Amino acid sequence: MTYEAPRIAPRNWRTEQDLGAYLAGLRPSARNVTSAALAVARIDELGWAPLGGYPGSDVLWPVACLMCGWSGTRFYSHLRRARPAMRHRGCLPQSEHPSLLSALSAYAADTCRCRRGHPTTVHEVADVLVALQRAVREDDHGQVVAHVRALTGPCPATAARAQAVRALHKPPK
Ligand SMILES: [Zn+2]
Ligand SMILES: [Zn+2]
């Protein structure tokens, strides 16, 4: 089956300079950035793309359906459980969803090759989190946004990044 992912309107680059492009109404704390990194990876895995910053799990989040190009708002608390199963009114038939998801997963990568890179290992993620906390303390807005972008912005290796984020939170043995 040939499948081309629908074109999602690119975000305006100027809004990418805003913290709100990554975290909507949330402080850039390690906790919020961690939640956002896991959320963007989870919705990516389910064939959704964020169209705005992660707002928390029970606040409507603007997202695009990567299966058909629909855009609208959804609660992450529903999306994370792959609810509703019909995704949204007018989506492609549910019977096609598994093959569409595997076609979409072909875009995934284990390593980041983005021009402005994203951390994908536990050490890299830990370093960026430390740098973020420093930037927050120093009130360096540009660096805060850059680090939040690195941890939560779109990347083909978003799953690897989330895995590293999750591993950081495993209690030490
Ligand atoms: Zn759809
Ligand atoms: Zn990347």
Task: Characterize the structure shown.
- The protein is mostly helical and 173 residues long.
- It has one domain (15-168).
- The protein is 39% helix and 8% strand.
- It has six helices and three strands, in the order αβββααααα.
- It has helices spanning 30-45, 76-79, 97-105, 122-137, 141-152, 158-168; strands at residues 48-50, 60-65, 71-75.
- Strands 1-2-3 form a three-stranded antiparallel beta sheet.
- β2 and β3 form a beta hairpin.
- α4 (122-137) packs across α6.
- The mean pLDDT is 90.
- One zinc ion binds next to loops.
Mean pLDDT: 90
Side-by-side strand order of the widest sheet: 1-2-3
- CA radius of gyration: 16 Å
Spatial shape: globular
Outline:
The protein is mainly alpha-helical and 173 residues long. The chain has helices at residues 30-45, 76-79, 97-105, 122-137, 141-152, 158-168; strands at residues 48-50, 60-65, 71-75.
Which structural traits does this protein have?
mainly alpha; 8% strand; 173 residues; 6 helices; 3-stranded antiparallel β-sheet; binds zinc ion; globular
Strand-helix topology:
Layout: H1 30-45, E1 48-50, E2 60-65, E3 71-75, H2 76-79, H3 97-105, H4 122-137, H5 141-152, H6 158-168
Antiparallel strand pairs: 1-2, 2-3
The structure holds zinc ion (ZN) (2 copies).
One zinc ion binds next to loops.
